[in-house]
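Researcher: Structure for this, please.
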Amino acid sequence: MLAITGPHDTPGVMKAVHAHLPKPHDPFTDLVPPQGIKLTPNHYAYLKISEGCNHRCTFCIIPSMRGDLVSRPIGEVMHEAENLVKAGVKELLVISQDTSAYGVDVKYRTGFHGGKPVKTNLQKLCEILGELGVWVRLHYVYPYPHVDQVIPLMAEGKILPYLDIPFQHASPRILKLMKRPAAAEKVLARIREWRKACPDLTIRSTFIAGFPGETEAEFEELLAFLKEAQLDRVGCFAYSPVDGAKANELPDPVPDKVREERKMRFMEVQAGISKAKLKAKVGTVQKVIVDAPGVGRSMADAPEIDGIVKFKGGKTGTFETVKIERSDAHDLFGTLNSLR
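Model: Predicted structure, token format:
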């Protein structure tokens, strides 16, 4: 007997076999390093856990392009994550079209990792990713109730206290037209509970302004939600018709000029919120990952979409601590503690 494993643990079976019988040389696949080929810098990588989506948001055509949700086996995901970490990756950005639905399609069946049975769900995945000793950041999280279960892991420092949740709007009628969850009051209550459980939590979200049929009153409702929610990082898109999207068939399209004007008004409100939140960090010491000499990101900043921390010095791919000395509406500025 070579090892004890399970019928669905193909990687584990092959690993046990190849420990005793060398894998035949393949001139094609053997050229690919264990961590795969990635286009990101050496110190961070995207970890895709599923493909497709079960939702039918009217502004989106992903299901028609990529089909329904298909979750990757949890052992396969962890094998890739471990290889990335072994290759020097310091930050894993967990992505999919619907990260919180991970495992729904396979009814959260038991997979295998390290020869042990593991449930295929977001909480368990976060728990074992949190054991790798690197930053783990969650993106594209749909606000299912079970998302509450990962907040304690953030509070304990197992994964980054960061949630990327695309709320899209706040008006119940517009959310219904979008085929999105339509209870802004419940969302605000959950945000309060999340922050109570994890005070350092950063919430990023995206919204659509000028969705077909959106009235001025409904847009004002969105602005009121934004002011109440006090989200940390926010993006806003003026609605743009996508070929094949059901939303294109809705009545009362908002004129281009009005869509753009609402987007600008939205971002002006968010700029004030962001400026105040970043100002509150002046005088604190932030742990950052250095993306390039003089440029890093804190736990609250995902690459390419959030703000940055600017300072002098630092080596790419390392962690540093920075004393924050000033801020603006988007970024922080400070001095490396090692240079103070």
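Researcher: Any notable elements?
Model: Residues 97 and 117 are 26 Å apart (CA to CA). The two ends are 59 Å apart (CA to CA).
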